[in-house]
Amino acid sequence: MRYNVIKNADSIIDSSSYLIKNPENYKGKWNEVFNNNNPICLELGMGRGSFIIEMAKAHPNINYIGLEIDKSQTATAISNIRGQKLNNLKMICADARNIINYFGKEINTIYLTFSEPWPKKQDEKKRFSHESYLKLYDRIFKKDKHIILKTDNKILFASALENLSKYWYSFDKVSLDLHKDERKIENIMTDFEKQYFKEHRVIYYVDASFKN
Ligand SMILES: C[S@@+](CC[C@H](N)C(=O)[O-])C[C@H]1O[C@@H](n2cnc3c(N)ncnc32)[C@H](O)[C@@H]1O
User: Is 91 part of a structural domain of the chain?
Assistant: First the structure.
């Protein structure tokens, strides 16, 4: 899928009430941002934002935060909200490596959706399901840990399952072909997923948790 460069990305981002500009100011205080104590779910690498926007629409009593490093993608995600009023949605344009600067122990679920597979051995630590990231997540989960991961990349999926099991996560649901799975797994498609669905690509899915 092509990444479009949005020339006025900065101004779209700066003028949006959905975008939290200094997320470090809200560390431990996201319930104040949303003005309620509802659960908070975080998507890392939201891209154009379809998934997080649709999740926010489908679950008004859950708060959603989409984080994305790329300004053009973030601006596109903001544009995709298209005048809808979603009180339970915020976005952050930042590097996921810095999440512990933005969140205290206040996140209920982390979504890792079609994250970069980083196929080279030397890049493995950049994967959002790498052990170094799992350690960061430990510092922002409220109590129980809960990760939902979707990918079309078998190697990434295998390494994610391995890392999650090393960290004692249980697998509540695993699917080796999400779109053909006969069980009722709630699934809102991401932008990448919509493309892969058209191409009949297999999508791997895991819903993993660790109860504290
Ligand atoms: C393959 S795209 C998937 C986008 C979206 N989740 C989807 O499924 O349509 C991966 C996204 O992760 C973002 N990303 C990569 N590394 C990141 C990082 N360190 N922090 C935040 N976002 C990152 C990329 O800019 C890109 O938009």
Answer: yes
- Is the distance from CB of 95 to CB of 68 less than 8 angstroms? no
83-97 pLDDT tens trace: 899 999 999 999 999
Compute the mean pLDDT over every residue in the chain, rounded to the nearest whole number.
Answer: 96
DSSP state, 137?
H
The CATH number of the domain holding residue 66 is 3.40.50.150
Nearest CA residue ID for atom 10, ligand 1: 115
For residue 88, the CA-to-ligand 1 centroid distance in Å is 21
Distance 162 CA to ligand 1 centre (A): 22
Domain containing 133: what range?
37-210
- Report yes or no: 148 and 112 within 8 Å, Cβ to Cβ: yes
| Residue pointed to by tokens 């939902």 | 148
Residue 6 located in a structural domain:
no
Task: Tell me the pLDDT band of 2, cut-offs 50, 70 and 90.
Answer: low
The predicted structure's pLDDT at residue 82: 83
The total domain count for the chain is: 1
